[in-house]
Structures are given as structure tokens and as C-alpha cells.
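Team,

Forwarding the record for the chain on the shared tracking sheet. I've put the sequence and predicted structure together so nobody has to dig through attachments.
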Amino acid sequence: MKFTVDVDCTPEEARRFLGLPDLSPVHQVYVDKLQRMVSDGISPDMAGEMMKSWGPMSDAGMNMWRQMFEQMSGAKR
């Protein structure tokens, strides 16, 4: 026998129901940092450090991000 249950709830309600931690303060700090970087201007070096902090990437992946941000900022190597 198989049955399906649909639950209509917000992400916050689902998080609480499942007992997951509230990461809203961490998320807000992260969003604030990104907003400051955008408003102050972002350099290719800053973008590279940000990408490295998001997770492990190979050199090829980091080079792709670096090139993309250099093209966007007009920076030359």
C-alpha cells in the first residue's frame, strides 16, 4: 500500500517541525557581507576569495570564476 501526504507550510514551519537549527542570523550576516561587497565594489581577488569560501573547487573551476569576474570588472592580467 502506498499513500501520499501533502503538507502546506512555510519553510520556517517545516524547519521547526523537523527540528532543524535556525540559521537565519548566519544567513543575514552572509547577505549583509555580500551587499557591502556589491555596494563598495568587488575586485577579482575578493571574488576569488569568496568563491573559495563557498566550497572546494578545482583549479579549473576557480580559473573560470576568476575570468568571469575579470571580464565583468574590465580588469586585465
